[in-house]
Amino acid sequence: MFSNIRSLIFKLDPETAHNLAIKSLKFNFVPNFTDEYKDDPLFKTKLFNQDIENPIGMAAGFDKNAEVYNSLFKLGFGFVEAGTITPLKQYGNPKPRVFRLVEDEALINRLGFNNFGAKNIVKRVKSNKQIGLLGINIGPNKDTKDRTSDYIECLKIFNEIADYITINISSPNTENLRNLHNQEKLNDLLKNIENEKKNLNSKIPIVVKVSPDIAEKDINEISEVLLSNNIEGIIVSNTSDSTRDDLIDIQKHQRGGLSGKPIKKKSTMLISRFYELLRGRIKIIGVGGVDSGESAYEKFLAGANYIQLYTGMVFRGPNIVSMIKKELRELLLKDGVKNFNEIVGNKSLR
């Protein structure tokens, strides 16, 4: 069905198409799919000590205002991450700010953390109990004078209703946000967050989302900081503000974060490097170019414990989880494994 209407959808401005998708999910206009591999033991796992049906998550950026997470669970996602959410409502950057690179199967966005604000969104989540594992991705307002305080404010607001909280330090669309990859700055931020968790008597898992554009020395330094601050997870990675050389589409020079197929190799290599350093002590969520069973398989082999996608659904449609599971299942059965976790970081299968 999606292949029949994709050409019509792609005639719309990408942000308009996205808003239409949100409304369709909100009002259950998306048809139910038959998932023949639901509850398949090949895919079952735990995320932060909670059972999930599969390791395929929806990345932050799709459900920015936590409006359709339950509909996404019904589409088969094992977990959903809403956001990025800031303390105060903000419009984001001027439009147009999302660009569809059809020839490259990619998106470029410079949205700039557009969202309704933390207090508005927490009310919605409280009134619409999640039926699956829900993460909340948080960030600072564009004009804030104290970014650490913004992260702390969001932690206070969401710590009781989220299953985990992601600290977004990696969007290329908020000026100087990526400076927080600096070892000293990141360490200070995470220590403040840990202190606030103690004040709240909260045990909520904290995840850090990193950029795909970091240097080799950053990988080592970030790993040290995460380990020393008892961080439970790392998301590798966000969108890229480089990686333009091999793009074909005429819109390849648009400013913003690139996602989709063109960053698949880059993010997979980065996952492998973090896996070598972290060695299972911190869970890795792999993101970047996941749109098939084969791309998911590559992320697991590199060391990802879970995967997330967003752009893949834009190009393959709302049934993408079922398609990935079908394709991935064939690869796993060929390996003779009983659960996908057996291949995580397994270089002998490459």
Walk me through the structure.
The chain has helices spanning 2-9, 14-26, 69-74, 118-127, 147-158, 183-200, 216-228, 264-278, 293-302, 311-316, 320-335, and strands at 45-47, 50-52, 56-58, 79-85, 98-101, 106-109, 133-138, 164-168, 206-210, 233-236, 257-260, 283-287, 306-309. The protein has a single domain (32-349), classed as TIM Barrel (Alpha-Beta Barrel). It is globular and about 50 Å long. The chain has an eight-stranded parallel barrel. Strand 1 (45-47) and strand 2 form a beta hairpin. It is 36% helix and 16% strand. The protein contains eleven helices and 13 strands. The model has no long low-confidence stretch (mean pLDDT 95). With 350 residues, the protein is α/β, with parallel strands linked by helices.
* CATH-assigned fold name: TIM Barrel
Oligomer: single chain
How large a portion of the residues is in β-strands, by DSSP E? 15-25%
| Main pleated-sheet profile | 8 strands, parallel, barrel
* Mean pLDDT, all residues: 95
Radius of gyration: 19 Å
Structural class: alpha/beta
CATH architect. name: Alpha-Beta Barrel
Order of helices and strands: HHEEEHEEEHEHEHEHEEHEHEHH
Shape call: globular
Roughly how much helix do the residues carry, as a percent range? Answer: 25-40%
Low-confidence spans: none
Total beta-strand segments: 13
Number of helices: 11
- Within the largest sheet, what's the order of strands? 3-4-7-8-9-10-12-13
**What is the CATH homologous superfamily assignment?**
Aldolase class I
